[in-house]
Amino acid sequence: MAKAEVDSAQHNNNRLGNHSSKNMHRRHTTLREKGRRQAIRGPAYMFNEKGTSLTPEEERFLDSAEYGNIPVVRKMLEESKTLNFNCVDYMGQNALQLAVGNEHLEVTELLLKKENLARVGDALLLAISKGYVRIVEAILSHPAFAQGQRLALSPLEQELRDDDFYAYDEDGTRFSHDITPIILAAHCQEYEIVHILLLKGARIERPHDYFCKCNECIDKQRKDSFSHSRSRMNAYKGLASAAYLSLSSEDPVLTALELSNELARLANIETEFKNLIEFHMETKS
Questions:
Q1: Which UniProt keywords apply (predicted)?
Q2: 184 & 250 share domain
Q3: Separation CA 232–CA 210 (nearest Å)
Q4: 182 and 128 in a common domain
Q5: Where in the sequence is the domain holding 250, given as residue range(s)?
Q6: pLDDT digit string (tens) for 102-155?
Q7: Tens digits of per-residue pLDDT, 75-84?
Q8: Band (271; pLDDT cuts 50, 70, 90)
Q9: What is the 3-state secondary structure (H, E, C) of the chain?
């Protein structure tokens, strides 16, 4: 009976390992394909005349979103039968990103009411980076965040959903693919936004040990060691930020000391962590 249980456990571990490997392979294959598309398109598209691939209606819609023309945006969303509200301008930004980037809360709220709205994740990261608290709250009220699952996943992890939550192969995504909303808020020292995200259940997961031999870590190190190291750096930088330490820990001082010791140990293993120690010491002071 004991042998059967051991065999069953080994079978489950193998199955989970195979599933993880398949997901990682699929993720990297998709990124390669999107990279090829971007390379084929090249940088020249940035210098094309605005609207070369847009209809006059779409041009007017994007301009209205960018400049906060609420009546026009509302009328077009409610009355137009041909409008593609996910269309993008020559810089690869859609109406939601333009509205958020220019701090137009009312326009953002109008767009968020539309079903199948693309790049909601990009808009959230953009609002966090600019410290637009009210817009962050509006975006977090979107149904995509109802269960809180989207907040725990980075753009790279969201990719497996095969939707348009993030613009993986466009310039619309200006943040590292391993950045989650709360990591970005912590990096930007946005206390109020960090607090909002913590109330939503978002947390920064501590990276695995450097010598971890789980399937996920092995795959990441083998496929792209640079991205793996960068994701660890971004996570620890978020954990070490004053905003996250003060709001997520019952004893921020003790947590800071423990984190400092851990970073000092990592600096002897991963040299890139030496700069992070300096950042952490500045944060504590």
A1: Receptor
A2: no
A3: 9
A4: yes
A5: 204-285
A6: 999 999 999 999 999 999 999 999 999 999 999 999 999 999 888 777 787 777
A7: 999 999 999 9
A8: low
A9: CHHHHHHHHHHHHHHHHHHHHHHHHHHHHHHHHHHHHHHHHCHHHHHCCCCCCCCHHHHHHHHHHHCCCHHHHHHHHHHCCCCCCCCECCCCCEHHHHHHHCCCHHHHHHHHCCCCCCCHHHHHHHHHHHCCHHHHHHHHCCHHHCCCCHHHCCHHHHHHHCCCCCCCCCCCCCCCCCCCHHHHHHHCCCHHHHHHHHHCCCCCCCCCCCCCCCHHHHHHHHHCHHHHHHHHHHHHHHHHCHHHHHHHCCCHHHHHHHHHHHHHHHHHHCCCHHHHHHHHHHHHC
User: What's the distance, CA 189 to chain centroid?
Assistant: 17
Length of the chain: 285
| pLDDT the model gives residue 208 | 84
Distance from first CA to last CA of the chain, Å, rounded?
58
Residues near 281 by Cβ (< 8 Å), separated by ≥ 6? Answer: 260
Kindly report the pTM of this predicted structure: 0.76
Q: How far apart are CA 51 and CA 58, in angstroms?
A: 8
Same domain, 265 and 186: no
Who contacts 117 (Cβ-Cβ below 8 Å, separation ≥6)? 85, 86, 96, 111, 142
CA 167 vs. chain centroid, Å, equals 10
CA–CA separation, 245 vs 284, rounded Å?
10
Which of 149, 169, 202 terminates a domain? The answer is 202
CA gap 208, 157 in Å, rounded: 17
